[in-house]
Amino acid sequence: MAQYIIKGGKRAEGEVTISGSKNAALPIIAASILNAGKTTLYNVPNIHDTQMMFEILKKLGGKVTKKNNKIIIETNQINKYEIPEDLMRQMRSSVILAGALLGKRRTATFSYPGGCDIGTRPIDLHLKAFEKLGINIEQNYGKIACSCDKIIGKKIDLDFPSVGATENAILASCMAEGKTIITNAAREPEIVDLQNFLNKMGAKIKGAGANTIEIEGVKTLKDVSYNIMPDRIETGTFLCIAAATNGNMILKDVDTEHITPIIHKLEETGCKLNIEKRKIEIQTPKKLKAIDIKTMPYPGFPTDMQSIFVSMLTIAKGTSVVVENIFENRYKFTRRTSKNGSKNKYRRKNSNNKRCTKAIWHKCKSNRPKRGSSFSISRNYGKRNNNN
After folding, report:
1. Domain 230-380 of CATH type 3.40.309.10
2. Which of 36, 86, 186, 265 is 20 to 30 A from residue 340's alpha carbon, by CA?
3. Is the pLDDT of residue 224 over 60?
C-alpha cells in the first residue's frame, strides 16, 4: 500500500497547474463506445479510476493507446457487453459504461458497483431511466442484464438530480429513435462537458447545466478529439491547502465559474482571491474565521469539498457548523482528524468544528481520495510528535 509521510508546519506556496477532471473524464471515456471509432482525449488525469476504465474498455474489446499528453481510444472492435464483475466492484463509476453499451449495442450486463463507503448510492434511478426508454431489465444473483431491440425517446423524470443517472440516461438515448427529455437533471459542470463532447461527436443535445435536458436521437456518431475540463474539486483542494497553511498560491488552468460556492466560502473565512479568466491567486489571513456550510447539489456547495473544508476549519477562530445533505457517511473521517487534536462533534447531519491550537502527528489510513486529502491538510499544519 502506498503511503505519504507529511512533515507539517510549512506554508504551502507556489504555482500549480490543475489536472483534468476525473468526474468529467470517466463518462467521456465511456461515451467513446458510441462512435464505434476513434476518440482522442487530452487532459485526462492519470489516476486509478481512469486506468480502471481503460482496462474495462480493453476487456470489452477496445484499444487504448497513450501518446505523450493524449489518449487514443478505438472502440470499433468491441464485441463483449458484460462489464467484468471484479473491475466493476473496484470502481463505482464503471456503471456509466452501461448507458454507453445500451446506446450503441442495445445490450449490457453488469453487477452492482462498488468502490464507495461514504453512503448509500443506489442505482435504482439509473434502472428506472433505462426502463423508461423501453429497455428490459432482469436482475438475478447480483447481476443486472439490460437489453432491447430498439430505444425509443421518452420523458424521464428523475426523483433526485443524480449525476450518474443523468449521464447514463444521456448516453443511452443519444442514438435512440425520437426525442428524450430528462427533467430534474443534475446540473454539474461535468454534465455540460459530457454534452459538449457528445455534440462534437455529432449528437444533438441541449440544456445541460439546467434542470431539463433534451436529446434528439441520431443514427451515427463520428470520430472526435476533445480536451477534458479542469477538475473543480482539485482546484478547491489546493485553495484549502493554501488557506490551512497560511500560504499564498497561484492556480493555473482553472475554470472559476465552476467553483463559485467554494470561492464564496473561502472569502467568508477571510481569504482574498484574485480571479482571472484561467487563473486564480489566493492570499490567506493569519487567522481564518469560522463559517457554516451546507452541502447541496450543484450549484450549491459540493459534497466532495466537505471533508476538505472541515479539516481546514479546525484551525479557524470560533466554531464552524457543517451540514452534509448528500451522503450520510461523509463524516467518517472526523474520527481520524480528532486524533490530530481537532475538536469535532458530529451528529447524523451536522459536524461542529472548534479551533485546534495544536495538531499532533500520527499514522492514518485512508481509502478515499477526498478523505485522504483532508488528512493531508490536517497533518500539514500539525507538528510532529516524536513519541508516536
Report:
1. no
2. 265
3. yes
> Across residues 185-201, what is the average pLDDT?
98
CA angle 77, 33, 31 (to 5 degrees): 165
The confidence band for 5, taking pLDDT boundaries of 50, 70 and 90, is: confident
Flag whether pLDDT at 156 surpasses 90. yes
Residue 47 and residue 28: Cα distance in Å, rounded? 15
CB of 121 closer than 8 Å to CB of 72: no
Q: Which of 116, 146, 148, 271 is catalytic?
A: 116
Amino acid, single-letter form, for residue 363: K
Q: CATH fold of 22-219, please?
A: UDP-n-acetylglucosamine1-carboxyvinyl-transferase; Chain (3.65.10)
3-state secondary structure (DSSP) of residue 26 = helix
pLDDT interval class at 288 (50, 70, 90)? very high
Active site residue 240: no
Q: Give the C-alpha separation, 305 to 310, whole Å.
A: 9
Mean model confidence pLDDT for the chain = 87
Query: Residue 108's closest CA among 119, 118, 117, 99?
Result: 99
Name the band, by pLDDT with cuts 50, 70 and 90, for residue 183.
very high
- Where does CATH 3.65.10.10 sit in the chain? 22-219, 230-380
pLDDT greater at residue 122 or residue 200: 200
Rounded to whole angstroms, how far apart are CA atoms 76 and 73? 10
